[in-house]
Amino acid sequence: KVSAEDSEMAFCTLANREDLNPEEGSIHHCLYQFTRNEKLTETNKLLCDVCTQRHCGPKNNVKSEKKYVYTNAKKQMLISLAPPVLTLHLKRFQHAGFNLQKVNRHIKFPEVIDLAPFCTAKCKNVAEGNTKVLYSLYGVVEHSGTMRSGHYTAYVKMRTTNNHLSDLVLRGQSPQALETEPVKGQWFHISDTHVQAVSASKVLSSQAYLLFYERLL
């Protein structure tokens, strides 16, 4: 969707992303790169209807005669609606010649993550004045093995009911109370029928493939 709003506001975020200075190899760095401002030039120029009409005139409607005008542009992918449950899917493969190779690098991820630097300044379900969009980790999926075979296991936090999350899912209401700490609970590692209690540090050292966060604020 092409935004027709003020061009300066279109690239503004809830929190200053330039203050992040994310560590390479972290989930913050992944999000920073995914939402970076890109310049579209040369063969990636954007077709501009306004420029085309200005160049050809409003009466020229014959496609064969119209010369389309392309212009340099900026593109940035930002979050316009903060979800009740945030699911982050890490790309764990890369091309190696004609084959795909699994990426086994550890990506650092926190128990509480703030999405504000990656949300548009006019994020639809964030209360006015809020400069934080906080999420608490409650689930991790890990894959061991290769691209051809392997095994999936999960880490899940047993916790109390998140009333803010219920309000978001059932009534679409934005959370108002400030919660900056992760939701308290016991972590468990689940592998087929085997379930074992583990520490939070064990979870944070896992080689995450999928991350599940629930919204706090």
TrEMBL record:
Matches recorded under PROSITE patterns: USP_2, USP_3
CDD domains: Peptidase_C19K
Keyword Ubl conjugation set for record: no
GO cellular component: cytosol; nucleus
InterPro entries found in the cross-reference section: Papain-like_cys_pep_sf, Peptidase_C19, Peptidase_C19_UCH, USP, USP_CS
GO biological process, one term: protein deubiquitination
GO molecular function, one term: cysteine-type deubiquitinase activity
Pfam hit, one: UCH
Key word Hydrolase present: yes
Domain USP residues, every copy: 1-216
Keyword field: Hydrolase
PANTHER family linked to this entry: UBIQUITIN CARBOXYL-TERMINAL HYDROLASE (PTHR24006:SF852)
Protein name listed in UniProt: UBP16 hydrolase
Organism: Tachuris rubrigastra
Annotated gene: Usp16_1
